[in-house]
Amino acid sequence: MAQVVKENSITEGVIWKQLLLFFFPILIGTFFQQLYNMVDTIIVGQYVGTQALAAVGTTGTLINLLVGFFVGVSSGATVIISQFFGGGDWKALSNAVHTSMALALAGGGIILVLGLLTARPALLLLGVPGEILEDALLYLNVYYGGILFCMIYNVGTGILRAIGDSKMPLYVLIVCCLVNIVLDLLFVVAFHWGVLGVALATALSQGVSALLILLRLTLTHEAYRVELRRIRFERSILKNVIRIGLPTGLQSVLYSLSNLVMQASINSFGTDAIASWAAIGKIDGFIWMVMGAFGIAITTFVGQNFGARKYDRVRRSVRICLAMTMGVTAALSVAMLLFMEPLLRFFTGDPTVIALGQDFLWVLAPFYVAFVCVEIFSGAIRGAGEAIQPMVISLFGICGLRLLWVLVVLPMHSTMQMVAMTYPVTWVVTAAVFLVYYCRMGWLERCKKAAGHIGPGESGT
Predict the structure, then answer these.
(1) Integer angstrom CA distances of residue 420 from 108, 413, 415, 416
(2) Integer Cα distance of 411 and 32 in angstroms
(3) pLDDT, tens only, 388-401
(4) Residue 338 CB: number of other CB atoms within 10 A?
(5) What kind and span of H or E run contains 153?
(6) How many angstroms separate the CA atoms of 30 and 280, rounded?
(7) Contact between residue 176 and residue 147 where contact means Cβ atoms under 8 Å apart
(8) How far, in Å, CA of 169 to CA of 157, rounded?
(9) Is the separation of the CB atoms in 386 and 306 below 8 Å?
(10) d(Cα 358, Cα 260) in Å, to the nearest integer?
(11) Mean pLDDT calculated for residue range 203-224
(12) At what angle do helices 416-440 and 235-267 cross, to 10 degrees?
């Protein structure tokens, strides 16, 4: 087990240095993930047209609804694995790894069936315009056809990051991105397959990433090695995975449902609005990837240090991570406002779409920093094993307020700017609630008691 101990630097050393060493591979990896998603959008917008751009863009919330739920549930395994790794319980770690892979296979099968059955009704329910409906349906069906690759990749990278390896997921994403770009150019630009070409490129590149992750996990000799014959559900492990992961999965569903409501509101303004919203989603994806990378980092840091019973290090890592995330997010928000027009031109030359995108960004960009509290505090609390409370806060703060805004405010002021304003309002309110909960509600003590960590002289401070 010498290599395992060597890799576990998260519970030792200077916190900000270890955070950055763990964070940067995640950040660069998510950059490449965002890059290959952006390449899809650029190639569709420039070589196929605005309608195709809108068709691909309108599918994102539907995909996130199903995929996000199962990735959220499997995140419970990531927390459990990080705690076992931090505590040095190698047998339980191995059981958790094989349970998480079984969850990936089961989740992929369920999403495949549900996705194919619900794709057309869901698009119709969203009010997708008739001129882009068939292209959107085609993209969804091909994407769902390769969904098992997506699940294996996401669960596999969760396992690696839980044990402190954020570099291998980076290498895999770089390869995946390059494969996707080459296939995009081949299928769309050379073969003129349009939306079908983009969908096939995405599915095949995810297949490559799933294969590479599986090779990494099956060829290692450490405690987290995946043996295909041992992939099955371990009842006690699955119970804890669901206890932590199910609220996270439901939270992801609630986010996606609220975003579906928002997408339906955008759809009502026509194809130009849909296209501009799709472009915005790719541009501000760079900010979300920074916050998401820090969120993954703090969840792993808290999980491993909680497992090692280093509670003071838990709190210090949260404070440091919060400060770093806010600083980076603020800088990116300013840069986005300064360069929004050339950024939008990457995706389309349509002046109407560009103007609409600028209007959206002026509403959104000044408030991204508010969501940092939501990302970091919820990630920290889940890392210690408490998942229901973050879900409840998000349910009322994000989803409930968005629905209320759509039902009450939008009918009185039916503009695209008011649709966009839903996001800053809900971010600020939810961030305030998370701040109070983190500071005042004794979550760490409850997690210690639930995990049986309370002993003589121990405290949560």
Answers:
(1) 33, 12, 9, 6
(2) 40
(3) 888 888 888 888 88
(4) 11
(5) helix 147-162
(6) 17
(7) no
(8) 6
(9) no
(10) 22
(11) 91
(12) 150
Through-space distance between the first and last CA atoms of the chain, rounded to whole angstroms: 31
* pLDDT, tens digit, 9 for 90 and up, residues 122-153: 888 878 888 888 888 999 899 999 999 988 99
Structure token digits, residue 63:
């995909």
Q: Model-level pTM?
A: 0.72
385 closest CA partner among 305, 292, 320: 305
pLDDT tens, residue by residue, 153-208: 988 988 998 888 878 888 988 898 889 889 988 998 889 888 899 889 989 999 99
- Reading the block at residue 334, the tokens are 């300013």
Is residue 320 pLDDT above 90, yes or no?
A: yes
Instruction: Give every CB contact of residue 46 below 8 A, 6+ residues apart in sequence.
Output: 347, 348, 349
Structure-block tokens of residue 80: 């459990």
Token reading at 387: 């998942």
CA distance 376 to 354: 32
Q: What length is written for the chain?
A: 461
Q: Are 281 and 143 spatial neighbours (Cβ–Cβ below 8 Å)?
A: no
CA-CA distance, 252 to 16, in Å (whole number)?
29
Cα angle, residue 104 at apex, residues 29 and 294 outer, rounded to 5°: 30
HEC-encoded secondary structure of 1-54: CHHHHHHCCCCCCCHHHHHHHHHHHHHHHHHHHHHHHHHHHHHHHHHCCHHHHH
Half-sphere exposure of 347 (CA within 13 A, CB side): 32
**pLDDT tens-digit profile of 113-128?**
988 998 899 888 878 8
Q: 339: how many CB neighbours lie within 10 A of its CB? A: 11
Token digits for 340? 């929004």
Which of the pair, 172 or 70, is modelled with greater confidence? Answer: 172
The span from the CA of 24 to the CA of 6, in Å, is 19
